[in-house]
Amino acid sequence: xxxxxxxxxxxxxxxxxxxxxxxxxxxxxxxxxxxxxxxxxxxxxxxxxxxxxxxxxxxxxxxxxxxxxxxxxxxxxxxxxxxxxxxxxxxxxxxxxxxxxxxxxxxxxxxxxxxxxxxxxxxxxxxxxxxxxxxxxxxxxxxxxxxxxxxxxxxxxxxxxxxxxxxxxxxxxxxxxxxxxxxxxxxxxxxxxxxxxxxxxxxxxxxxxxxxxxxxxxxxxxxxxxxxxxxxxxxxxxxxxxxxxxxxxxxxxxxxxxxxxxxxxxxxxxxxxxxxxxxxxxxxxxxxxxxxxxxxxxxxxxxxxxxxxxxxxxxxxxxxxxxxxxxxxxxxxxxxxxxxxxxxxxxxxxxxxxxxxxxxxxxxxxxxxxxxxxxxxxxxxxxxxxxxxxxxxxxxxxxxxxxxxxxxxxxxxxxxxxxxxxxxxxxxxxxxxxxxxxxxxxxxxxxxxxxxxxxxxxxxxxxxxxxxxxxxxxxxxxxxxxxxxxxxxxxxxxxxxxxxxx
Length: 502
Known about the structure:
about 15% strand; 15 strands; 6-stranded antiparallel sheet; Rossmann fold; alpha/beta; 4 domains; 5-stranded parallel sheet
């Protein structure tokens, strides 16, 4: 043990320990503070903290301090490779005062970074006697050698770093479980939790905030499974009507006769099974918001009645000639090409224009793949609770597979995929094979095999042209100049590839 306690070092240790026990929110900043303190107290010129990956095969640089810290952070080290890899594999501390002569030293990193390691301390970070990472301090100042006391202090700070990670994981698990519970019980209305911090999502939520403050109708457009209902909830929750009812109706789930009664209610005797008066969803949503999902499936005969509700706020129940007046805001959603339906006469143009006052276009998941890890962790927490199972998280291969897959079923498909993985996974981590069983037709490997060259080229053209259009604010003349093609050819490509502004 330490032969003589240094007051300054001891006070620094107390300071770090107090930070760990204060539920410090930024783990990276806390680990940086711990490593910086360790480097100062050991008299080093540089230091780094490496963490093992989910499968325990690689060490990646989480914190790197010193003049070349930024360059160092791009490297990874295999288990058993170099001094850090040896420490991780053997779960033992080491002090090397002549690095150049140590056969374990990984000289390639030093050469590429241009920072020679002359002396070094390296100690494992342990959680339940398992090495989860390594802390290194490099080059004792003034060409001195590290001492046994330096090594012991670094071991103490490595324990502190491991403790910080344990606390952070416990907090993350607790917050995740609280979020799941809130999702189930919020306001008694069953509102969903909105997950996603990508620029696309942030911009959408800013639009939602602006749209919510009005009382106009909103048409939410997007592919199946993108979360249109969640955005409808957000419009309601951010509106002045948030304390009033939020009523949902799936127009595709009910036949025409039942849908009219469901929306507007009926009186006793209106039809055979009408044994009593019944209030409809519009009355139930009076003062609040009604969300009409799959509006594209509403029969033409009902569209005229809905148009009247939007314009005059009045309707009659089925079997009644008494006019009912309501103050209900209408939100509608569809995954269909509603403009094409209007052209074909399958959807009333006047109703479309009244619903489409404030359109919201929800992009598919493949347009904001940076949200996939957070969404995946959210669903994993949800289904761990439901299945009474516990996983550490996703392996790196699983995360890469999720990022690389196109998710034609969008967020709903992602959720179903993780629900299935929660049931079949048997280890501590959810792996790629749990998410995409090899026999599955929808796995990333099979998806790639099923794509022909024409499909791949069209996907590239679509994404590339949309990116340039975005850069030039969808000015086709300027975009055509940037692409060095004729404007007429650009218009043809936009139509052929079905590229739409979102």
